[in-house]
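job 3f2a | input accepted
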Amino acid sequence: MVCIASFIILALIGVFVALISIFKPKIGKAYLKALKKAWGCLWKKVRLQKCETGFKEDVKNTLLSRIMIKHPKWVKPLSIIIEALSIIIVIVAIWALLTAIKSLLAIWALGSCNVTKPSACTMGAEVCSIDESEPTNVLEATGRWFTEWGEIFEAIPDKFKTYNAEEYTFNYITINPSEIDGLLYAVDIFDPGCSVCMISYRNQKNSGFFDSYNVRLVPFAIQGPDDNYKFKNSEIIVRYMFALEQVRSGESLMIIDKIFTEKNHDGISYQNMFNEEYSNDEARAKLESWLKADGMKDSEIQEVREISESEEITTKMNENRKIVEEEIRVKGIPTMIYGGKRHTGLYKSE
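job 3f2a | predicted structure (350 res):
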């Protein structure tokens, strides 16, 4: 293990030695000689051959040369410590390499280097993440590490899969009151409280995306591992959208359009008001005021309110959650399906 650990350490300090060797070439030559010996030893280990005992002893003698003279009794225990540290260095290096490989595979397969908490990965797509529970102890953390590998390998075939937007049995609303013959289908999964979803929706609207596809909008309120909602009033908005669709088909688009594109009299976006300012009751009152302004009768608004609180709407939301998290294995939204592909993250105007 000493020769393997030595190679790892020498490889890591290579950049610094290269800079120093510009001014002191002897150090560079000595470094290359030691690196060559360490690599030779490592290569023999890989091929299950015995390593040179001389190199191992050279390393120990270099580290312990002064102690041998002053404190000879310390040599044996320190030699054991060096062996132990070498084992730790090798284990950490292997773990770091595997973690780097896992992160790269996760970005490619899932769109985020952090499988459990996608929002913690700055290298992934711009999303509002669907996070899982964090491990609370070492045993859980170890189990989670292996589980993440399983999730990554399960998701790899999805990269080569052809997606058909029509095959998923989402509960959805449509952009157009009646879908247009001849247009391809697209699915757009969004959370009313997600700022990335808001920007994505605006980009889609301004670029003509909604005119190019029969778009099925899937309102989806992100829930955390404790089943609490990520954004304060998303659940209420989604419930009202589905309820309104039953009372007046095609009218629920008005709600999300106002939340994503309009501001109140103080110039604050309605999305921010629903996320930060409105209580649950105030959120319901605001939604109902929009329905009234849109020409709905009090009796119809009462019907929407009652349906929104029904078990039927709860079932619809649970069905969508199962498809999003288990069938499509989405780690963040917005997520769109169109052109035979699944697209996660911000939609950018073409």
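job 3f2a | Residues 66 and 72 are 9 Å apart (CA to CA).
job 3f2a | closed
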